[in-house]
Write a structure and sequence with these properties.
Helix 2 packs across helix 3, helix 3 packs across helix 6 and helix 4 crosses helix 6. The chain has one domain: Rossmann fold. With 277 residues, the protein is of the alpha/beta class. The protein is built from 8 helices and 10 strands.
Amino acid sequence: MRKEGFFRAYRNQELFYQLWKSQEQVENVIIVTHGMGEHSESYIHFCEGMLPGNYVIYAWDLRGHGKSEGKRGVASVNEYVEDLDQFIRFVKSREGDKKYFLLGHSMGGLIQMSYLINKNSNDFAGAIFSSPLMGLSMPVPVVKDMAAKMLVKLIPNITLNNEIDNELLSHDVSIVRSYDRDPLRHDQVCPRLYLDFLKCFKEFQQKAEKLQLPILMQLAGDDRIVSLKSSEEVFSLLGSEDKQKIVYAEMYHEIYNEVGRKKVFEDLKAWIGERVD
């Protein structure tokens, strides 16, 4: 069963969402936050891998992404965090008294981590991080870093190519080709967002111990997009006594859309199952 609609987010922005479930009555909810340039429909393989199951999966399109309002690539981490807060409230108003799991991929993981740290939200059944953006895979050249800081002051809403190569997202050629043809995907990012990322990286190192809820990190062992080392460092700093890290040795960044993703889903379903039984 699949449904879609819109919800009112931060500053009355209208954002798109969709949900999937395999049975009418469920006891658990998974709330998915996607990464940069993608959208909720990118998680169709995730839903196919996770369902059937005793949960409903909600995924939303970030502002400026997919079918949501907003200029492509123009937003701040704070706006994304406030949008996520509104989406969680929206989902809880629909689903009521259930167990809630948050799942964030890549930039969605950064947004989710910022939300959990700054909203003091340890009242979820668990949080899953898929190849989260906790640091960049390659250092940004000094010239580009300086240019970003200048552009934020001179042209705050300018967008630039994010320079992400789809070939480095997955070894599954059919997935990569579908990305190349997808009109809802975009490759834009504003310098302000890049500077927000740098602030978040420092904040995560300083405040990760605040997180006390169950946490699973599923990490790509051959990630060319985000820093595996940074994710592992943040993981080591988490305050939770119930935390698990799994590294998928030869996988690229998008582990839920990778060759061999069946094992990734099996691990995730087992982890959730242990926390709802």
